[in-house]
């Protein structure tokens, strides 16, 4: 059974960089076959896909966040990470990492982490 | 970007009754549509993908239908554990986008 677990600071100051890591257990990121994504949910709101990374390092980001997002992977630790720069209060959200089965195009998210709340405040 | 809309925003249903949730895409997404269930304080759970294929372990009372721009999630007989928020998600085009959700609550 694949499990994903987010970790990182729960409080980030405005203009700083939000950094989160997702640790995957029960399966290897480097085995391929999946995209590894970040998704966020503003308090009481819907879901916003941030971007994905493949084990090879190839990425694709939501154009709405592309200028501020970097997703990286560390296959030796079976982890992937999110960095979001120049944060504002509008970036306050629950951040989820999720697995996306690989297909010709995008797919759906079959496993999710429990989510971690990140608050942007001074 | 494909915009997803869902209706109604809230659906009040009695246990044992049927619930029908709608999802509409701003342009055709073929059958590249998934449904998720989210309970308070939990991550979304995949229910349906490919518009109509139940994910592993999902009870048969959940069914999905539709293609193109109009989709439906039906819960045939609501159980107490089904009261939650339901989201649709298209994966036909980047960026992946979700609907705003339908809350199913107890009547």
TrEMBL record, chain B:
Residues 1-89 form the Ig-like domain. InterPro entries: Ig-like_dom, Ig-like_dom_sf, Ig-like_fold, Ig_sub, Ig_V-set, IgV_Light_Chain. GO terms for cellular component: extracellular region; immunoglobulin complex; plasma membrane. This is IGL c596_light_IGKV3-15_IGKJ3. It comes from Homo sapiens. The keyword Transcription does not apply. Keywords: Adaptive immunity, Immunity, Immunoglobulin, Immunoglobulin domain. One of its GO terms (biological process) is adaptive immune response. Immunoglobulins are composed of two identical heavy chains and two identical light chains; disulfide-linked.
